Amino acid sequence: CDEALTLEMRTSDRRAIERDTYLYTSVDIPPGAFHVRRFEPVATQDVVHHMLLYGCARGAKAGLDKVIGGMFTSGARVETCEDGTTQALLFGWGKNAPPLHMPDDAGFRVGEGAFKALVLEVHYLETQSSDSTHESGLDVIISPGKPRLSASVLAWASYFELQPKREEELVMASCAYDKSRTLRAFSFRVHTHERGTSVWLERLVGGDSYRAVRLMERDPQLPQEFAALSPSEEFTIQSGDVLRVTCKFNTMNETAPVVAGFGASHEMCNMYIMVFSDEPQYLSCLGSNSTRISTFTIEAGDAATPVTDLTAVRAYEVKKSWPSMGGVGGVQATNDGSYVWMFHRGPNVWGNGEDPSKTMKTIAAKTVVRVDLYTGKVDKSFGANAFVMPHGLRIAPDGSMWLTDTALHQVFHYAADGELIRAFGSRGVKANGARGFCAPADVLILEDGSFVVADGYCNQRIARFDANGEYAGDFDFRGLASDVSVAHQLAYAPSRGEIALANRENATVVLFGASSGVRMQDPIDLSEYGKVYGLTYMASSIEGLRGYYALCWRRDGDGRAHLVRLFWPESSTVRALTSTPPNVYAWALPSDITTPHVVAVQSSKNGGTDAWGPGLTVHIASTTSGSSGNYRRFWLGSNDPKSRELGVRTHITAAADDDDAADDADDDADDVRFRASRPDAAASTARRILTTALAACACAGALLAHRAHRLRIARIADITAFDELDEA
Fold first, then answer.
1. E-state strands within 252-377
2. pTM score, two decimals?
């Protein structure tokens, strides 16, 4: 049966017997898996101030009919769910906002494996007539089955106090996203009371409160709908991002301070962002109007399953017939973990003491390749007849590609389709300062489009450039215990405010302030494990494996490669200003990795490895003289993944157009209604619903018959609820 079901959720207006009344109603989801297709408000601004819809994993909390409070009561959030967990928000409405229709391939999962009940909060600003027969609420239209992409909501709120007689008062709440899955934002809603003039969202650059990229903004006095983002406005949120919501208020009409609260005399600062992912992630950020960076709280989604014993963690190789290619200078996985990009050298091999700019020819083959991690095949490639000695590769936040060539002494910026946008530096010309580079090894792109270059083999520096590509100076290397010798690979930890350098020949990792470019603490000596060739950062805290990962090579010793984790206590998501050295733990890699070069990691929640347990996928790139073995994939975890399969691939893409009038007409004709009604009509309404539903949709009969004995007056008044991984 593919007919839509309408869950009617209503509260009686006459129960709003005093100003700022909050009423609640709930409905149970029928057995089976469903997803929300539409939200249709049944309310007007002159009666209802706002409505919020929450999801509960089990059922609604008893006694909500006695609550007069809403989001905060006596400083605590009102619990809407029987299990006592903080509620997950699905939808919000205010100021006569229109209905919301979800894209065809996405929706909010409810029922089996998701929310078993929905709770609607209705805020009445003014007292309503005691003899009113009107009801207000929301119709939630659901369809059977799971959507291809799961929608969820990120919510911001703040505690604050506004001073009177101010034309501009700002309230901020900042949180670091330290979860795993990549999220794609597709619509947003803002909320304040009448003093609010604007609400906006920013992404902080390197966690710096003074450097931010504004992503979206809206006047809270407009209809408080979930406003759709255009394809060009949509953006992704990935692990490590720091997001800040700011509300601007005008208090010129106030004579006393105004505090945050649920009443009309109070104020609110809220933003809600709807996002897509392969699995729903409901998160909240609670601020206190300061520059402090907190972390998102999980309301519903991936629970942390941290590794507790590092000695039980192994580096298991994921074997597959990976493509043959020349030595790999750079490697990076896509955000969703489905693909890995590599920048290879074809037949060119860089020998000791050799100047490749003088001895090597341009590589005829396509040197930039994308490998499908599910199939092991190359599915995209470009870069033929363009490079001599490929080295660094980086995917920018906008999906474009940045590359470095140590023989050409250049940095390149390519569009996602492989078209060259711009080249920095002069081809084949060694230079320094603002004039160019000398064998640049790596490049890192920040949130505002600025970038830094590990200018790597000759100049021994980290050069900084603004978003227009103008030279902005070098990082400050003063105070280093030893000179930098081959600035090889960069790692970025925005929530910690750091950029780290693999100081290859001196076998150290050096931490710099991402904005200041100043060294944060003494270099971290890893000489026990060899030269530090590769370096990357894992921002997700889900697996308990957050930290920097260095690829070290005992090149001048036994030749063994090691993967080395550098980490601080898990409470230190946002870096404190301290010189505390990190903890260090190392794993020996197979002895047949003879020329390790660079490393990349991805979380267990991406790339179909969720069922493998807590762990990370590790991509190791080498520069052997042959064409095989230059890419190796490992699983860093407690469980050997040989007996586990990869999950289903899911692409996080832009929302599809949902404006299909014909489909909407069919949906309306096929609706089957479940009603949340007044207690005094509960029993008769339940029987009427059941009879109507059975007549309207024969294929739903079995479902409703199964539920008939469970239709009853709910606990809340005003509610009737009724391998080898070779082929993995």
1. 258-259, 270-277, 282-287, 293-295, 297-300, 314-317, 328-333, 339-344, 368-372
2. 0.86
